[in-house]
Write a structure and sequence with these properties.
The complex is a heterodimer of chains A (95) and B (392). In chain A, 23% of the residues lie in helices and 23% in strands. Chain A is α+β, with helices and mostly antiparallel strands and 95 residues long. Chain A has one domain: Beta-grasp domain (Ubiquitin-like (UB roll)). The mean pLDDT of chain A is 95. The longest helix of chain B has 4 residues. Chain B is globular and about 60 Å long. The chains are: A alpha+beta (95), B mainly beta (392). Chains A and B meet through helix 1 and helix 3 of A and loops of B.
Chain lengths: 95, 392
């Protein structure tokens, strides 16, 4: 059984996926990539906002597992553990 | 339906409609997002917006209720697995006596920018992208596929799918219009022949004009008569900096081109081009061009002040109109600012249809004429920087 994690999204993403707003977003997955796939099932199109068509994390998007920024931006293979919090937010790049 | 003006801006999509005798703009959607190009599919009435979200990437958005509500298109534009292109980048190289090197490499393609959309009968929709992709739908936008013969054209190094090295060099060069900093080529003009959707012209920054007459199976350069007078090889087949082309709806053999090096006109379906610049009348450099849908010899431009400065010519903003295939030009200034005007009009930001001529500038000004340009009114001075203007 893969671990269950909580996912926190930047409010910016709620604008595009209003059905994800205001809910306790808990999904299962062993890696960050699997967590994203679980959210994609809830909100089709979500994954292409976070990653490009080759599965790489977009340049100006960050994902944290707990307080640790993901290391594998190419395939998001970073492991997650039971009850981890995965945070997805835009990088503050620009002025 | 009364004419609408669809306006794509750096900060969202606007729709301009006339009510009580006045053109009034309203924010129709995508607030805060870059809206590169907004157009109505004339065959279905659906509105399409080509967005650049910055952090979240490029997205196709649609509206089936005239812009009241928008949703991401079910099918988004994505390069297929294995799509690569030849990139040319300058890099720091301490070993070089000049401190920099010039690197040719093959790069996997990912979508940087949705730039233009074109429509044909029978559910044909084409989208031009950076880096250099033409995506085609034959089902009204339910699905899109990269046109592989154009992607793998010999002018770009041939078929790079599965290849580790290019067979030849690319003749397609980059455009600074790319989002994200890559200096890659882009497709910014698509003209689908209304009589036959298997005939499509596209224009590329920086390569030139290319045509298919067999539904995208084979592509051929259409740059005869173009002159690269700023390079050592003026009559080169490729390397043309076409800024925009537009085809006459009712006389599709008439095609207009605003190029970096002048204004060109073809009356034989892009087989040959004729330079119709008149620098002494200010008609030479610029980005957009639009042709009368019923009269292929009538066209409008918004000339800019040389490629070095890229703003309105000294002495005020004007639109240039020809009624005789570029033999003569008129400067149309009535209603346009004639002092301290620094408007730049992007390639997609001038259009005419249904008796309405409209254009918008990077300084957020939107101008409309209902008498072919004889007089203009200012619709707004306060829009975000304007990327595209489409009437219809």
């Amino acid at each position: 059984m893969p671990p269950t994690v909580s996912v926190r999204l930047t409010p910016h993403l709620h604008r595009f996926f209003p059905n994800l707003e205001g809910r306790d977003l808990r999904v299962q997955g062993a890696t960050v990539a699997e967590v994203l796939a679980a959210i994609e099932a809830l909100a089709p199109g979500f994954g292409f906002y976070i990653c490009d068509e080759r599965g790489r994390l977009r340049t100006h998007v960050n994902i944290f597992v707990g307080k640790q920024m993901v290391r594998d931006r190419r395939a998001l293979s970073d492991a997650v553990a039971e009850n981890d919090t995965v945070s997805i937010l835009q990088a503050l790049s620009g002025g | 339906m009364a004419a609408q003006i669809l306006v794509g801006t750096r900060k969202g999509t606007f729709i301009v409609e006339k009510s009580d005798g006045r053109w009034r703009p309203r924010l129709a959607g995508h607030a805060g997002a870059g809206s590169n190009f907004v157009a109505r599919d004339p065959y279905t009435g659906r509105l399409w917006a080509l967005l650049g979200h910055g952090h979240w990437g490029a997205k196709l958005s649609c509206s089936d209720d005239g812009g009241a509500t928008w949703a991401d298109a079910a099918a988004q534009i994505k390069y297929p697995e294995g799509a690569k292109y030849i990139a040319q980048d300058m890099y720091e190289d301490e070993a070089s006596e000049y401190g920099v090197g010039w690197r040719i490499s093959t790069k996997p393609a990912t979508l940087a920018k949705l730039w233009v959309i074109g429509f044909g009968p029978g559910g044909r929709i084409f989208v031009g992208t950076i880096p250099g992709g033409l995506f085609e739908s034959r089902d009204g936008g339910a699905s899109f596929e990269l046109n592989r013969p154009l992607w793998s054209h010999e002018s770009r190094g041939g078929d790079l799918f599965g290849a580790t090295e290019a067979k030849s060099e690319t003749k397609w060069f980059g455009t600074p219009a790319s989002e994200g900093g890559d200096f890659a080529a882009g497709i910014h003009s698509i003209a689908v022949d209304p009589r036959d959707p298997d005939r499509v012209l596209v224009a590329v920054s920086t390569a030139g004009v290319i045509e298919t007459r067999d539904g995208g199976q084979t592509w051929h350069p259409r740059n005869k008569g173009m002159l690269l007078d700023h390079t050592p090889e003026p009559d080169a087949e490729w390397g043309h900096d076409t800024h925009f082309i537009e085809q006459c709806r009712d006389q599709p053999e008439h095609i207009w081109q605003q190029n970096h090096v002048g204004v060109y006109y073809s009356s034989d379906g892009a087989e040959t081009w004729r330079k119709v610049s008149r620098p002494e009348q200010g008609v030479h450099f610029g980005f957009p061009v639009t042709v009368d849908p019923t009269n292929g010899r009538r066209a409008w431009l918004v000339p800019g002040r040389s490629d070095q400065e890229r703003m309105a010519l000294e002495g005020g903003l004007f639109v240039a109109r020809t009624d005789d295939g570029g033999e003569t030009w008129q400067q149309l200034r009535n209603g346009l600012p004639q002092e301290a005007a620094f408007d730049v009009v992007y390639r997609h930001a001038l259009h005419n249809a249904d008796g309405v001529l409209a254009f918008g500038s990077t300084t957020g000004n939107l101008y409309v004429s209902e008498d072919g340009g004889d007089s203009f009114i200012t619709v707004s001075n306060n829009l975000p920087p304007i990327y595209s203007v489409r009437v219809g």
